[in-house]
Each structure stands twice: as C-alpha cells, then as structure tokens.
UniProtKB/TrEMBL annotation:
This is Beta 1,4 glucosyltransferase. Signal peptide: none annotated. SMART domains: TPR. The keyword rRNA-binding does not apply. Keywords: Transferase. GO terms for molecular function: transferase activity. Residues 5-143 form the Glycosyltransferase 2-like domain.
C-alpha cells in the first residue's frame, strides 16, 4: 500500500479548509500544513486534523512555499491540495483504491482538476495536475506564481478528480508579484510572460495583455499547452476589444501547436455564426464533433465542446439554413446530455411543429 503525505500551504482559509481536509483526512498518512501568515481561524481549524503545522514567512513565492512544505514530508508519496480544493465521495473512494494498488514504480499520479460545473453537477471545465509524486524523486516546484512541478519518469494518468470550490475572488495578488519582478528585473521571461498576460487580461488591461500574449507566442514552444492557452486567451481579448478578425486569427494559430481541438473548433465556428456565415460555422462545429475523445492535456479544457454544445450550435445553424431535419437531429443529440434543458425542449417543440411531426418521431 502506498503511504501519502498531504502537504498544503494556506493563508486565511477558515471558510474552506475543513471541507478540504474532511474529504481526505482518512486517506492521508500524515497531513502537513504550512501557514504563510493567517490572521483568521485557519490554524485553529487545522489543528483538529494534524499537529504538523508550520509557520513560514511569505516572500511572494508560491514555489518556495510548496518546496518547503514538500521538504517536511516523511511518507513514500506526497500529495498537494489548495485549501479550496476537495475530493467528492466517489473520488475519495477511487483514491482509496489507488493507495492499495499503486505500482511502486510510478513517479507521479495525474488527477483531473474540475473547475466549473453545470446545473446537473457535471464538470464543464477541467485541467490535469501532477497531484501525487514520489518523495524520493525530489521533484521541484518552479515559478513564484502559477507554480508548477517539473516531472520526469513514470507518470500514471487517472480519472480521479479534485474539485475546485473557489471562494476568494481575484485580489490582484499575483499581478502585484509579477510587477515586482518586472520592477526588479526589467521584464518577465518564459512562462511568466503568459502568466503576466493572464493577470493583465483578468484585470481588464486588455491592450497590455494582447501585447504580452503576442510576445509569448513569438517565443520558442516549450509546453504546447501553454501556447494553446495563449491563443485562447488572446482571442478572448480581441473579442472584448471588438477586433473579430484578429480573434479568428488567434484561434486558427492554435493549430500550429496541436491537431484541431473541439473547444477551438467551436470557438472558430462561433466566429462564423457571428458573421452569419452558417455553412462555414457548420463545418467547424462538425469538426468539433469529430474530436470525440477529450485529449490528455494539462491545459484548461471546455468540456461542453466535447458533449452538447456543438450539437446545439448545429441545430441553430441548420435551422438558419432551412435544413430542419438536421436541426432536429442535432437538437435530439444535445438533449441526450441535457434532457431537462428548457431551451432545447423549446427547440424540440418548435421543430416538431415545423416538420409536422405532432410528437416524437417513431
């Protein structure tokens, strides 16, 4: 059986820490909490679960704090979570099974990271993370913000999911850290260019964000998922700025880094819907449907683009083209994913009347 140390860095997490620890407390062989300056009840809550609580002076460096927390672990494997993460019951049970069966040759266990949900509690946005790593490999965290583990060796991909239940809103903390780096060094480099662009976009400094995304995309490709993210975020900036031609160009640039992905195909299709060029939109939404498997990427994936969304859009597009049978067909396919959706049910009713069905087709 694999023994696991849970290592967390926290600060002012009284609203969410108990939820996180309750979801994993019976699965961890030790729990290590590194507090970087809480002024609320965080440590009072943490002590209910562990006596391994340490104070660390905050230096605007998440990687340094993560590395310190990992250095305190004593078990064979190390798992990390943020305080606003938790495991749902089904995922806790999967992790319990994994502990019993994990091959000792595995160096890293990758888990899904569910970021948003629909009304049926299905994940609609996700990424993946190296979530459990072998302590003896001494893997290191990098980057002061948006820190990441550099992993080599045997990686095991699982469908175990960590759910992100964010409470805190954007405080501009990460932006301030990056601006301090720029003040000290004159600029940011490498992946920090992408992270700086993201922070600028999140605070509506769109023109500056565009400049940084373009700078990042002009650099050599190190992690293609980062380039895909840059293309997606750049296209969103252009959309907000009202430059729809450059939005489309940013989306098409994604194909320089990977085969067409359903979420990019849907975004390109939407560009043509906005231009009322429905035959072109249909082509791209059909391309999205052809990407039937969600890729094993570490970047953020918009999961609805692999399920109901392209069918819904094809219903609209075929309807605008007067091909009502095809519109009905794709509305039915979307309903298989969202059987109680009022918009889809209304579409169904209108199309049945238009087609003279008078009810469900035989």
């Amino acid at each position: 059986m694999a023994n696991i140390s849970l290592c967390m860095i926290v600060r002012n997490e009284e609203e969410v820490l108990a939820r996180c620890l309750d979801s994993v407390k019976d699965l961890m062989d030790e729990i290590i909490i590194v507090d970087t300056g809480s002024t609320d009840r965080t440590k009072e809550i943490a002590i209910r679960y562990t006596d391994r609580i340490y104070d660390l002076e905050w230096t605007d460096d998440f990687a340094a704090a993560r590395n310190y927390s990992f250095s305190l672990a004593t078990q064979e494997y190390v798992m990390w979570l943020d305080a606003d993460d938790f495991l749902r019951e089904k995922d806790s049970e999967k992790l319990r099974e994994l502990k019993q069966t994990l091959d000792p040759e595995i160096d890293s266990v990758v888990m899904e990271y569910h970021l948003a949900f629909d009304g049926y509690d299905n994940p609609i946005a996700m990424s993946r993370r190296n979530r459990i790593v072998k302590r003896s490999r001494q893997f290191t965290w990098y980057n002061p913000v948006h820190e990441y583990l550099f992993i080599e060796g045997n990686v095991y991909l699982t469908d175990i999911a960590v759910t992100h239940g964010r409470v805190h809103q954007n405080t501009k903390r990460n932006l301030h850290i990056l601006e301090k780096i720029i003040e000290k060094n004159g600029s940011v480099e490498g992946r920090d260019v992408l992270y700086y662009a993201n922070e600028l976009a999140d605070t509506d400094r769109l023109v500056e964000a565009v400049e940084q995304y373009r700078r990042f995309l002009e650099s050599p490709v190190d992690f293609f998922e980062d380039n895909l993210m840059a293309c997606a975020r750049l296209s969103a900036c252009y959309h907000q700025l009202g430059n729809y031609e450059l939005k489309l160009q940013a989306l098409l640039q994604s194909m320089a880094y990977d085969i067409p992905r359903a979420d990019f195909c849907c975004s390109i299709g939407q560009c043509f819907v906005d231009k009322e060029e429905f035959s072109k939109a249909i082509y791209w939404f059909k391309q999205a449907i052809a990407q039937d498997e969600v890729p094993n990427h570490f970047g953020v994936l918009n999961l609805i683009c692999w399920t109901w969304y392209p069918h819904f859009q094809l219903c609209i597009c075929y309807g605008m083209e007067g091909e009502l049978e095809l519109a009905y067909e794709h509305n039915e396919k979307a309903l298989k994913y969202l059987p109680d959706d009022q918009n889809l049910l209304e579409n169904k009713n209108k199309l049945e009347q238009a087609l003279g069905m008078g009810g469900k087709p035989g």
